[in-house]
Amino acid sequence: MQKDLNQRPADVILRSSDKQLFYSWKIFLTFASPLFSDMFTLPQPDTSDNVDARCDGLPVVDSPEDSCTLGHILTLCHPPSCTGEQFRVSKISDLRAVLEATVKYDMENVRCVALKELSNPLFLCEDPVRVYALACQHQCHEAAQLAAKYTLALPTLVRGYLPDLEKIHAGRLCRLLLYREACMTAACSLAADHGWIVYTEWSCLFGCDGHDSDEALGWTTVSHPPSRKYRK
C-alpha cells in the first residue's frame, strides 16, 4: 500500500529492498504472520533520533523482499476495502517469490490464497512444468495433477535447465515422466486398435477424385453418432 495509492491513516511502514515504502497497519500484519506479531509485541529500540528508521512519524521496517513481492504479500494480508487492489500476478516467477515469502513469514492462510493462482490457465499453458514444480514444492496435489495434464501438450518435457526442479524431490519428476509415458502408450494403443469404433450409421467425411488417373479415391467415413464405448 504505497502512500499515493492509499490515503488512510497507517501505523507502520514497510520498506522493500529497492527502497519502496508501503504504508500498512500492524493489526493486519499481526493476524497474517506470527513473525510480525512477535516483532510488534517485543520491546523496540528507541528510533526517535534515527531518520532512516522513521518516516512521517511512523516506524519503518526493512524487508528483504523487492517491491513487487512485498506489494503482493501486503495485498494478500489486507482486505480489498483497505488497499483497493486484488491479488494478481502476471508471471510465474512472481508467484514463486510470493509463495516463498509466505513460507518464510509463516503466513499459512495467505499462502493458501496464493496457491489458487497455480490453476491459472495462462500459467498452465505458458509453462506447465514450472507450475508442476511449484505445486509439488508446496504440497498442492490438485494443482500438480492439473499441471501434469497440461504437460501432455509439450513435445518435450524439459527443453533446458529449470531451476524450479531443484526444489522438488526426484521422485516427483519421475512420477511425471511415468505419467507421460503411460498416456503416450495408451494413445498409441488406441490409434493402433480400431475396435473401439462403432460401425453403425456411417456418414461420409470427405472424398477425392483422382486428377491424374481415371481411378477415384474411396470415401473416408466415420461413425455417427460418436462411439459411447470410451468416454471423453
Task: Give an account of the 3D structure.
By secondary structure, the chain is α+β, with helices and mostly antiparallel strands. It has three domains: 1-114, 2-Layer Sandwich (Potassium Channel Kv1.1, Chain A), CATH 3.30.710; 120-192, no CATH class; 195-223, no CATH class. It has helices at 26-32, 34-41, 67-77, 80-83, 92-104, 108-115, 121-126, 128-137, 141-150, 170-192; strands at 12-15, 21-24, 54-55, 58-62, 202-208, 217-223. The strands form two sheets. The protein has a four-stranded mixed beta sheet with strand order 2-1-4-3. α5 (92-104) packs antiparallel against α6 (108-115). The longest helix has 23 residues, at 170-192. The protein is elongated and about 75 Å long.
